[in-house]
Design a protein that fits this description.
Largest sheet: 5 strands, mixed
Low-confidence stretches: none
Number of domains: 1
Number of strands: 5
Helix content: 25-40%
Mean pLDDT: 92
Shape: globular
């Protein structure tokens, strides 16, 4: 499997991120947390969206829920 693209958090808007996740299947975002750089993997399996962070994995049943997460976490502007 090819490595997913790596983007910087805030580089794209939430709608653009959603489109990339659906197109690619998964993407990675570089983000800063507690003065350290981390990567977050955002995935879609065709039904459920996943946010895999260094501390937890959470799921979203709809595109609307995922968009809200992306905006609230600062992943998409």
């Amino acid at each position: 499997m090819a490595e997913p693209p790596v983007l910087d958090a805030g580089e794209l808007g939430a709608d653009e991120l959603l489109a990339r996740i659906k197109e690619e299947g998964r993407i990675r975002l570089r983000t800063e947390f507690l003065d350290a750089e981390h990567e977050v993997t955002l995935r879609w399996d065709g039904d459920i969206f996943y946010c895999d962070t260094p501390t937890r994995l959470h799921k979203h049943d709809s595109e609307s829920e995922m968009r809200t997460c992306l905006e609230n976490q600062g992943y998409g502007h």
